[in-house]
Structures are given as C-alpha cells and as structure tokens.
Design goal:
four-stranded antiparallel beta sheet; Rossmann fold; PLAT/LH2_dom; Lipoxygenase-1; elongated; alpha/beta
Length: 257
C-alpha cells in the first residue's frame, strides 16, 4: 500500500483507525512531499512516519520547482487547468509525479536512511548500507523483507521538473600545485551510463595537498565511471599564471558503496 502525501488536516495525530498506518497492509510505503505545518505554511501532507518505509524527498516540505513564477506555472505545458492546480498544491501533487517517474526509473529515487534531512545533506548517511537502499515509489516493495520493526525515515533529492530522479555520489579532490589560491573547483563524471554536467566541489581558499569533498546529485546514473573532468578557476587574470591540478579524484557511488 503506497501513501502519496497522505493528508494532514483532520488526520495527523488521530487514532490509527481513521488514518493511514503500517497496520493497514503487509507493506506500507509513504512519500511525504508537503509536510510543513498546515498553519501557517498551508502544508497538506502528514509529517510523522506512519509506514514501514517513509520517504522524505528534498526534506519532505518544499519541493524544487514549486517556487516558480505563478504565471509560468499556471500557463503550464499541460494546460491552464493543470498549471493552476499545480500552483495551488504543487508540493502536495509532487508525490504522484515522483511515483509515476519511479515506474520508468527502477534504479532511481534511492532513499538513504537518516535521522534528519540536514544530516543527509552533510553526507552523514552516505553510502547505502551493505543490504542496499530502498527505492522510493513503485519498486519500494523490493525492500519489504528487510524492513525492521521501527519506523524508517529515508531522504533523497530530486530535480525541479521531469525527469525527477537524481543519483548521489561522493567526490573527493586532492589538489596539487605550488601556491594557495582563491577560486572554485568543478568536476564532471563520465561513465558507461552517461555524463554529468559540472558540479562544484568547493569554493574559496584552494590549498595544494588539501582534500575537498562534496556530495553531488547527478542527473544521470553514470554507471561505471570511465573518466573524470576537473576544472578550476580563480575568476580573475593573474599575471603570475598559477597552476593547479588534481593529484587524486575519488568517486564513491551511493548505491554500490
């Protein structure tokens, strides 16, 4: 039984007989996309974990792409009715859009078990444990035999628009060179499944021999990594022509560790 942002008003905090609960089926998975308080935030969705697996994409409150200009959202590609509805309840309706995308992407929407979204963003719950991570949406039931008794909160990020899934990687770059600089470092991943755009690993002080780490959410599953593109820039013309390189770049895949 899949709960697509189950309703908060009149249901949150009520006895389990009148709302969705893990006792309703052999396996209950839930996608929370609009769980901010109804007052004052107008959140329509329930906040507490209530299933065997509870997914909180983007933290479960504000979905990327839902803060678009109201006119651009109302005069939507799908027509004025669809656009108006999306503008009024955009976060709430993301749940079924993620679910429909999950049918097409069986390896997408990996959920990382974590105590909070902030810890997830910092990379504390990366990579997946030995038994793997469940996937949000249609294929969540592949994980039902590994469900524990307590509630499991799972976090992930999505894109702003279709297609929604992102794949998480940990990228560490150790710099080489002979002088400290100010600037930024970008990395793009190339693999058997496709290539990513450039993702910023660090910005600010760049010191040779230091290692900089970032968690990137890539728009493609790159598969087996075949090449990594490294780019740095200090945003201004330096007459000393400083040189900076990467002595090592380490890429860790969330799914396969």
């Amino acid at each position: 039984l899949s709960g697509l942002d189950p309703a908060q008003p009149y249901f949150q905090g009520t006895p389990i007989e009148v709302r969705l609960d893990k006792s309703d089926a052999e396996f209950v998975d839930v996608i929370h996309t609009d769980s901010a308080p109804t007052i004052p935030n107008l959140g329509f969705g329930m906040r507490p974990a209530i299933g065997h697996l509870d997914f909180y994409p983007n933290g479960g409150e504000e979905m990327p792409g839902c803060d678009k200009n109201p006119i651009s959202q109302i005069v939507d590609l799908d027509g004025i009715w669809e656009g108006t509805r999306d503008f009024i309840a955009c976060n709430h309706l993301r749940s079924y859009k993620y679910y429909s995308d999950s049918i097409i992407y069986p390896d997408g929407f990996l959920g990382y078990a974590c105590p909070s979204y902030d810890l997830f963003k910092e990379g504390n719950c990366f990579p997946c444990p030995e038994e793997g991570c469940p996937t949000m949406g249609h294929y969540a039931d592949r994980f039902k035999n590994q469900v524990k008794n307590e509630f499991t909160k799972l976090y992930l990020n999505t894109r702003e628009a279709k297609d929604f899934p992102l794949w998480r990687y940990k990228v560490s770059v150790t710099l080489s060179g002979n002088s400290k600089l100010e600037g930024y470092v970008n990395v793009a991943l190339y693999g058997t499944g496709g290539n990513t755009k450039q993702h910023q690993i660090t910005k600010g002080s760049l010191k040779p021999d230091n290692t900089y780490t970032a968690y990137i959410d890539a728009e493609v599953n790159v598969g087996e990594v075949t090449k990594v593109k490294f780019l740095w820039n200090n945003n201004w013309i330096n007459p000393t022509l400083p040189k900076l390189g990467a002595s090592t770049i380490t890429v860790q895949v969330g799914q396969t560790r």
